[in-house]
Amino acid sequence: MPRTGGVYSPPAGTKGVSNTTIQSVPYNALVDDLTADANAARPITAGGTGATSASVARTNLGLAIGTNVQAHDAGLQSIAGLTTAADRMIYTTAADAYATTALTPFARTILDDSDAAAVKSTLGLAAIASSGSAADLGSGTIADARLPSSMGGKTFTGDVQFTEGVDFGSAVAASATDLSRHLALWGTNYGFSITSNTLNYVSASEHVFHSGTNALPATR
């Protein structure tokens, strides 16, 4: 007999009556009914799954893998075994293997920066750190170790002050009168220049030259 609301009820006329002979027909009907019920899928309301296979049982119970629940995953299993705490993050140590490491509030202010310029700004670095150009060095000095080993071909647009003598190193003159290796100072309408092996001095105004402590005659 079909269950009603998950509750089994025996067929009518199958219950025994005191002091009467048990009739085979209703008795056999009861046995057959119990056998059919026992072999049928027990409904969820009766504590069963209403299914005859595992996949249908999971579906009936709302446990379908990939739809209602996550399938077993080694990576998730590894994460589940971690002990977490404030200011820590997880990272992989191998395939599907995870561990935790420190992630301080300061480190997070760098991680949320979108590019290198933003990182340098967060770190409070000077403009020169972003551009890499000495033109952005607004104050201070550049250590000797940061200067190029050779200044050949360099152009100075401002004043250059030497506190000591100038060493020309390997800039050897071609001859005793070759000044081109050692001097080339020139302005718009004044200064020194080299023509072949001749030193030329040009001035737009009067200059006084000294020999020792004695002034030489003024020239133009």
Structural class: alpha+beta
Strand content: 5-15%
Number of strands: 6
| Order of strands in the sheet with most strands | 1-2
In N-to-C order, the SSE pattern is HHHEEHHHEEEE
Mean pLDDT: 75
Largest sheet: 2 strands, antiparallel
Proportion of helical residues: 10-25%
Number of helical elements: 6
Low-pLDDT residue spans:
182-186
How many angstroms separate the termini?
A: 134 Å
Question: What is the C-alpha radius of gyration, as a whole number of Å?
Answer: 50 Å
Shape: rod-shaped
Report on this structure:
The protein is an alpha+beta fold and 220 residues long. The chain has 6 helices and 6 strands, in the order H-H-H-E-E-H-H-H-E-E-E-E. The chain has helices spanning 24-39, 54-60, 74-80, 105-111, 116-122, 127-131, and strands at 88-94, 97-102, 191-195, 198-202, 210-211, 214-215. A two-stranded antiparallel ribbon has the order 1-2. A hairpin with a 2-residue loop joins strand 1 (88-94) and strand 2. The longest helix has 16 residues, at 24-39. It is rod-shaped, with a radius of gyration of 50 Å.
Quick rundown:
This protein has six helices and six strands.
Layout: helices, strands, pairs:
Elements: H1 24-39, H2 54-60, H3 74-80, E1 88-94, E2 97-102, H4 105-111, H5 116-122, H6 127-131, E3 191-195, E4 198-202, E5 210-211, E6 214-215
Antiparallel strand pairs: 1-2, 3-4, 5-6
